[in-house]
């Protein structure tokens, strides 16, 4: 009898675990976005693409800010088709090039009168250097978005209430910011092993949380608010540059433990749309809920220092 009940019991437990722990909550906001403009970086695939579709369905004019013309234009057709909206535009943005960030911002500010929501979603897990000589994950995951946000801040202020949403990760928990290494080597850690790359990804995601913490302070008294978030573990292309072993482990674990991109976009949508969270500006969210973070992720001195070194690196 015990064994007859064991199998269905385990199946039910697994189902409940997947629904509650893996999939989690959905964005409950009914906010419509007609007349509003949103930028989503890295929106040709993964969470960014689904986020763009969901925002276009709500009536927003959505700018797909992607590095590849070919992938960006293919995504443009998909987003238009799946959202049923024609208010979707592709604009080229390579976050690994500060020149490209500047030219994107210039083009955007010249051609688009509004900016209501900026979603800094793009990210990668890849070693190497950016065009400007910064560590790739520091350069793309943090510095490119730092410059982009600063160049667009006046437009966000003019259009307030407006929001900046920074897609971070729970990986920020194992991150640290080594300012000496940044100063000397323009990267977050010097090593090149698999463990180092894991560490650097976490460091870059800690930068996202610290950037949001400092940005919220600097935005006090304006109508712009900002949030960082962990989207969950999602089946996307993020691990495409990882070691073959890591790819194999993740793709097997992913079958049960990862969300779909639509499920993975829910916390981003919550931070972008949910009414009444303005008093939580600067906070970190996961599963559509504001969370406590370790002291290192709300460290006033470190977030100010990161802001200042980032300004210096970007020449602003
Ligand atoms: N998937 C997860 O489990 C997970 C968990 C926690 C946090 N996140 C975060 O979620 C965000 C979205 O990741 P994802 O999982 O959707 O990954 P993804 O499928 O790999 O999508 C990443 C997007 O970022 C773009 N990107 C990469 N480098 C860029 C650059 N230099 N300039 C402009 N865009 C660039 C990619 O463009 P290309 O296609 O041209 O490379 C792609 O559109 C990232 O910030 C990631 O760190 C993901």
Automatic annotation (TrEMBL):
<dbReference type="Pfam" id="PF00106">
    <property type="entry name" value="adh_short"/>
</dbReference>
<keyword id="KW-0732">Signal</keyword>
<dbReference type="InterPro" id="IPR002347">
    <property type="entry name" value="SDR_fam"/>
</dbReference>
<keyword id="KW-0560">Oxidoreductase</keyword>
<feature type="signal peptide">
    <location>
        <begin position="1"/>
        <end position="18"/>
    </location>
</feature>
<protein>
    <submittedName>
        <fullName>Dehydrogenase/reductase (SDR family) member 13b.1</fullName>
    </submittedName>
</protein>
<dbReference type="GO" id="GO:0016491">
    <property type="term" value="F:oxidoreductase activity"/>
</dbReference>
<comment type="similarity">
    <text>Belongs to the short-chain dehydrogenases/reductases (SDR) family.</text>
</comment>
<dbReference type="InterPro" id="IPR036291">
    <property type="entry name" value="NAD(P)-bd_dom_sf"/>
</dbReference>
């Amino acid at each position: 009898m015990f064994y007859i009940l064991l199998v269905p019991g385990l199946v039910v437990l697994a189902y409940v675990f997947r629904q509650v722990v893996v999939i989690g909550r959905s964005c409950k906001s009914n906010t419509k976005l007609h007349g509003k403009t949103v930028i989503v970086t890295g929106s040709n695939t993964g969470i960014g693409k689904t986020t763009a579709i969901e925002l276009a369905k709500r009536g927003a004019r959505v700018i797909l800010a992607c590095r590849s013309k070919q992938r960006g234009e293919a995504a443009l057709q998909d987003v238009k088709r799946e959202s049923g909206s024609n208010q979707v535009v592709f604009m080229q943005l390579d976050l690994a090039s500060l020149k490209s960030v500047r030219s994107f911002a210039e083009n955007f500010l010249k051609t688009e009168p509004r900016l209501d929501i900026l979603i800094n979603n793009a990210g990668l897990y890849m070693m190497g250097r950016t065009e400007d000589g910064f560590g790739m994950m520091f350069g793309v995951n943090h510095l490119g978005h730092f410059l982009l946000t600063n160049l667009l801040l006046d437009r966000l202020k003019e259009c307030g209430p407006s929001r900046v949403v920074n897609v971070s990760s729970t990986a920020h928990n194992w991150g640290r910011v080594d300012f000496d290494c940044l100063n000397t080597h323009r990267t977050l850690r010097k090593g090149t092993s698999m463990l180092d790359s894991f560490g650097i990804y976490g460091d870059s995601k800690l930068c996202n949380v610290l950037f949001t913490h400092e940005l919220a302070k600097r935005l006090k008294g304006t109508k712009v608010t900002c949030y960082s978030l962990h989207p969950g573990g999602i089946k996307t292309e993020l691990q495409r540059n990882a070691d073959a072993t890591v790819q194999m482990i993740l793709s097997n674990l992913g079958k049960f433990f990862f969300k779909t991109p639509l499920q993975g976009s829910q916390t981003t949508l919550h931070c972008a749309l949910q009414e009444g969270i303005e008093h939580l500006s600067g906070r970190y969210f996961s599963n559509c809920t504001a969370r406590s973070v370790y002291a290192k992720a709300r460290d006033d001195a470190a977030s100010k220092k990161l802001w200042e070194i980032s300004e210096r690196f970007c020449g602003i």
